[in-house]
Amino acid sequence: MEPPTAASTRRGPSSPQHNTSTSTLAFDQHFTSTAKGILLLSEIVCGMLVWILVGGTDYFHLPALSWVMFVAIVFWILTVCLFIIYLTRAHYRLPQIPWTTLVTCTKLTIIEIHVKSYMTKCCFFQSVCFDCSATALYLVTAVVDALSVNQAIRGRHNYNCWAASAFFAFLTTLCYAASSWLSLHAWKNSEEEQ
C-alpha cells in the first residue's frame, strides 16, 4: 500500500457548492398571499369544517343533511383541486387541456363559450363560473343546514355540531361570494384591456 500523496485535493469552505437541481413541480410562492389565494384557503378550511362537523353526527337520519354533506364535500374537493391548479400554475403550463370546457363542465354550469384569446381570460371566466355556482349552492346548503338544527335536541352533540356547521356554511358562502366578486372584477378588467 502506498501512503497518500501530499497533493491531495481538499474542499474547504472557500469552494462554493451549487445546487443545480431543477423541478417541474414549481409553484407560485406568492399566490397564497393574494386575495384569491387567501379566499381559496378560507373556502377550504371553512368547507372542511362544515363536512367534518356534520359528518361527526348522525346526519344520515335527515335527508336534508345528506344534501349538506354532498355539497360540502363536492365543493371542498373541487376547491382543493382549483387551489392546486392555481398554486402550481398548471393552467398556464398545460395549454393542451381545454381548461374552459373542463372547468365549465365540472362546475355544474352549462355554458359553452368560444374564447380565442389568451389563457388568462379563460381562467378568469372559469373562476367566475365556479365561484358563482358554489355561492348559489352553498347558500342553499347553509339555509338547509340552519333549518335542520331544529331537528336535534338543544344542548346535545348533534345540535351543537349542526349549529356550528350552519355558521361555517354561511361563512363559506361569504367566501365564495367574495371570490365571485374578485373573479368577475378580474374577468371584466381582462376584457377591457383587450
From TrEMBL:
Keywords: Membrane, Transmembrane, Transmembrane helix
One biological process term in Gene Ontology: myelination
Residue ranges constituting the MARVEL domain according to the UniProt record: 31-188
Membrane-spanning intervals of the chain: 37-54, 66-87, 161-184
Organism: Oryzias melastigma (Marine medaka)
Main location group: membrane
Keyword Chaperone assigned: no
Places the protein is found: Membrane
Gene Ontology terms, MF aspect: structural constituent of myelin sheath
Membrane-related topology note: Multi-pass membrane protein
PROSITE patterns in the cross-refs: MARVEL
Spans annotated as Disordered: 1-22
One annotated Gene Ontology cellular component of this protein: membrane
Name of the protein in its database record: CKLF-like MARVEL transmembrane domain containing 8b
